[in-house]
Design goal:
The complex is a heterodimer of chains A (about 160) and B (about 725). Chain A has about 160 residues and is α+β, with helices and mostly antiparallel strands. Chain A is built from six helices and five strands. The chains are: A alpha+beta (about 160), B alpha+beta (about 725). Bound molecules: FE2/S2 (inorganic) cluster (FES) (2 copies). One FE2/S2 (inorganic) cluster sits at the interface of chains A and B.
Chain lengths: ~160, ~725
């Protein structure tokens, strides 16, 4: 067998500078789970088909199960554990209010995907939501509540419900 | 010796530094085994079900698997309600795997299997846990009565506080727990000590699920998230044809791959063990394996199987009898019209989002083991580990984690046994992970089946005869849902032929109810429409002697305004089913894209009578999820075999419902009831296939007789 090239890669993880030991087989999902104990990011399909492993790379929603860890060098990675900005907090609150999760396994990915949407477009239509969320599967079928929770997380809906 | 054991075994709660712990038990509880276990447990206070600490914190143990159905919260609510506990003080933890204490018999008595299947948890535990909650409350009341030197009847409780009605005196449960005397046994309670339904403050109202915050912030632990010191990853390349044995052709090459420590030969596959998921995956891909021939499933083709089923369906040989009522032959010979339709159902895969996995650590002497998994039958899985290692089950410590979906697949223990075998061989802890491809291709599926339906109708347009033959694989899995006792048809005959193809089948949320209720309800609409009778009216007549069922049907008709005109380009269809005691009626409103053959469900109305519902909002969530799952299996899902091998491998070729499949409106109504709780978790799934097929019939005049109704099949039907 050929020897694998081992190296260290540095990137920002949930706001902190970190260094990961990698080789050319390393995949971000497993680096996050095994080296940083960030297990909120889930494995499910391993081929960018289900979205359970969704994280943010420089603010964009990305599937981490097919992303070589080397690709995040110098970039900023956010996982569900670090999703603490205003939009993320609104979403997490809405997810509880709407009682969205069932088994919960897909939910970190759902929230990460939804958060990328609201950061880009704070007033999405139902169609926008569906288009943006299409890649994240939920076998428990919580989609109806996922849509409701996103709709109630927009700035207007959130502050509207607060002022009542 | 003996008297000591007896007196200990009557002690129903324990005082310790942490407060008081209540052991909930029924008369059947004191088996020899339990005494031994209990004696062992008393010192550590495991074995308690409810613990009240001096600071007021109440810990309630959860005996069931939490796989998204929410029963972890519902069961604790039942106890807390009767205890008059303050919900804010309640913490829920998983119980140890001790079936004699925490398990449940099918009749609802405590002590039995700890299996979470068949929507049985809430309905099964309901009465026992109410009585237990009432007993615990009584303990606090009695202790307060002694303290205040008053009569227990003068004491009221509310939100973890005992009040003396005629004075200002009050004590919190925490305070009482710190001085409570330990009696020999819990006070006896009867039905009369239970709260009246109208006095419930938690049962029947919306309480947020206990597990949800952790599932939102990423901290909820599934087995796949467990990491123990010295742990390695493991993966298995399993036989593509079920039953085949492996012979590895390149062991030396794979063993020396970077990061790989062991290659383990199992009866059904080759395991690779290494430092990471990535290393194992690379090694697994590099394996060159020759598989043994001569397996039962060799050459099995699921499409061809339908031809074989058809011959049996048309043949005169009777299968296993499911229902026999009246004289069907006479009914058909006197019929004014006969109907006949054959329905087909493909194999369906569970597709729980967390692939199967387990962490098992077998001690290096092989005499004990510790395991972390998510199982619907954690006691069975524990016993399987013990059997595998030839040790007593008491020497296996189990941590049942959250399940990233179960749907029936996780009541099997195959993945736990595999992890045990590998850990035993390498003498180190392993995390065995199934890739999605493994999970699909070594699946155990909802069986393929064919429903051959015949009916006779008399001059008045009434159903007089009902002949229904099921042919498929998977034995008992095929029969569930085949009976229609609620429909008054005087002559019925239902029989079942099951053929073993050597491929694996398994319960899948609502089991045979999915295929059977689809066939039954779609057939009824075909007859009704041919008889020029409105399908709702037709069913109403059939339910004339089943008032509870009728009410559910009428409710859904009212919800969707059944008699109103269906919007242009849409069709509406209705279906009725019972599952685990719950009665459900559903109506789908659909459109069809004639170009692509895609069916779109726009609206779904659903009415349910499931007796008293402990957690209504959670029940609604279950019904919503069950509708999406039913829709998914009706429109998308199909596993096929060719040459004995599963043809699908991941979500790109086994498609399941995505968010765009969600109806714009899902309207659910739970009929208020004080009857015993029924099972909710699977209730809505069975009606979806038929409701869609019937809406399609309404829209196009054409029946859909093969589930799933994929675009290709729909296009073919529309010509
Ligand atoms: S696990 Fe990454 S998309 Fe499915
Ligand atoms: S909540 Fe179970 S998969 Fe989405």
């Amino acid at each position: 067998m050929y020897a694998l090239e081992k190296s260290t890669v540095s990137f920002k993880l949930n706001g902190k500078e970190v260094h990961a030991k990698i080789d050319n087989q390393s995949i971000l999902l497993w680096t996050l789970r095994d080296q940083f104990a960030l297990t909120g990011t889930k494995f499910s399909c391993g081929m960018s088909q289900c979205g359970a492993c969704t994280i943010h790379l420089d603010g964009k929603a990305i599937r981490s199960c097919t992303l070589p860890t080397s690709a995040v060098k110098g970039k900023s990675v956010t996982t569900i554990e670090g999703l603490n900005h205003e939009v993320g907090t609104r979403l997490k609150e809405a997810w509880i209010n709407e009682q969205v999760p069932q088994c919960g396994y897909c939910q970190p990915g759902q929230i990460m995907q939804a958060s990328a949407l609201l950061q880009e477009n704070d007033n999405p239509s139902r169609e926008d939501i569906i288009e943006h969320m299409e890649g994240v599967l939920c076998r428990c079928g919580a989609y109806y509540r996922i849509i409701k929770a996103i709709q109630s997380s927009t700035k207007t809906a959130y502050h509207g419900s607060r002022s009542e | 010796m003996a008297p000591e054991v007896n007196s200990r075994s009557r002690r129903a709660f324990i005082r310790n530094a942490g407060g008081v712990s209540f052991l909930i038990a029924t008369g059947t509880w004191f088996t020899t085994k339990s005494e031994v276990l209990r004696n062992r447990n008393e010192s550590t206070s495991i074995g308690s079900w409810v613990t009240v600490a001096p600071d007021g914190q109440i810990t309630i143990l959860n005996p069931a698997a939490e796989m998204g159905q929410g029963s972890m919260t519902a069961l604790a609510i039942i106890i807390a309600e009767e205890m008059d506990a303050n919900w804010k003080d309640v913490r829920i933890e998983n119980s140890p795997i001790e079936p004699d204490t925490y398990g449940l018999q099918w009749g609802g008595q405590l002590g039995g299997p700890m299996i979470t299947v068949g929507s049985r948890t809430v309905r099964g535990y309901y009465h026992a846990l109410r009585l237990a909650g009432a007993q615990i409350r009584k303990c606090f009341v009695q202790a307060a009565a002694i303290k205040w030197n008053t009569d227990a009847s003068e004491i009221e409780t509310r939100e973890s506080i005992a009040f003396h009605t005629s004075s200002e005196k009050q004590l919190t449960y925490g305070e009482i727990a710190s001085f409570m005397e330990v009696p020999e046994s819990l006070p006896s309670v009867s039905e009369n000590d239970l709260k009246k339904v109208e006095d419930f403050s938690m049962i029947g109202s919306v309480v947020h699920r206990y597990d949800i915050p952790g599932k939102v912030n990423g901290t909820a632990q599934y087995a796949i998230d467990i990491r123990v010191p010295g742990m390695q990853y493991a993966m298995i390349s399993r036989s593509p044809v079920y039953g085949a044995r492996p012979e590895l052709d390149n062991e030396d090459e794979v063993r020396t791959m970077d990061g790989i420590s062991h290659i383990v030969t199992l009866s059904h596959g080759i395991g690779v063990v290494g430092e990471s998921f990535e290393k194992c995956l690379a090694a697994k891909r590099a394996l060159k394996i020759t598989w043994s021939q001569g397996n039962k499933a060799d050459g099995y083709d699921s499409r061809v199987a339908f031809d074989e089923y058809m011959q049996l369906a048309d043949g005169s040989q009777m299968g296993e009898s499911i229902t026999e009522l009246g004289d069907v032959h006479k009914a058909f010979s006197e019929a004014s019209k006969e109907y006949h339709t054959v329905f087909r159902n493909d194999f369906v895969y569970h597709a729980q989002m967390e692939p199967l996995n387990a962490v098992v650590s077998v001690a290096s002497d092989g005499k004990s083991a510790e395991a972390w998994y998510g199982s619907q039958a954690p006691d069975r899985a524990r016993d399987a580990i013990a059997t595998e290692l030839g040790i007593a089950f008491e020497d296996v410590t189990v941590h049942n984690c959250f399940l990233g979906g179960g749907f029936g697949r996780r009541s099997m223990s195959d993945y736990v046994v595999e992890a045990t075998q590998i850990s035993e061989k390498i003498k180190a802890p392993v995390k065995l992970v199934w890739t999605r491809e493994d999970d699909v291709q070594y699946g155990a599926f909802r069986p393929i089946s064919l429903q051959s339906m015949s009916a006779s109708v008399n001059q008045k347009g009434e159903l007089t005869g009902w002949k229904y033959r099921i042919v498929g694989t998977g034995d008992g899995l095929l029969a569930s849902g085949a009976r229609v006792p609620y429909y008054s048809i005087p002559n019925k005959m239902v029989d079942l032929h099951s053929i073993d193809h050597g491929v694996r089948t398994k319960h899948w949320r609502s089991v045979g109810h999915g295929p059977n209720k689809y066939a039954i309800e779609a057939f009824i609409d075909q007859i009704a429409r041919d008889q020029k009778t409105d399908p709702f009216k037709f069913r109403k007549r059939l339910l004339a002697t089943s008032p509870r069922e009728l009410k559910v049907l009428e409710k859904v008709a009212e919800m969707c305004n059944w008699t109103s005109a269906v919007p242009e380009g849409r069709g509406r269809g209705m279906a009725f089913a019972e599952r685990s005691g719950a009665l459900v009626a559903g109506v789908a409103e659909i459109s069809v894209d004639k170009e692509t053959g895609k069916i779109k469900v726009h609206q779904f109305w659903c009415a349910m009578d499931a007796g008293l519902v402990v957690q209504p909002d959670n029940a609604i969530a279950q019904l919503e999820g069950g509708i999406i799952l039913g829709l998914s299996s009706a429109l998308h899902e199909s596993i096929t075999f060719s040459g004995g091998v599963v043809q699908q491998s991941n979500f790109h070729n086994y498609s399941i419902a995505r968010i765009s499949d969600t109806p714009e409106n899902i309207d659910i109504h739970i009929i208020p009831s004080q009857e015993n709780p029924a099972g909710v978790g699977e209730a809505s799934t069975p009606v979806v296939g038929a409701a869609i097929a019937n809406a399609f019939l309404d829209l196009t005049g054409k029946p859909l007789t093969h589930m799933p109704f994929t675009p290709d099949r729909v296009k073919m039907i529309l010509g």
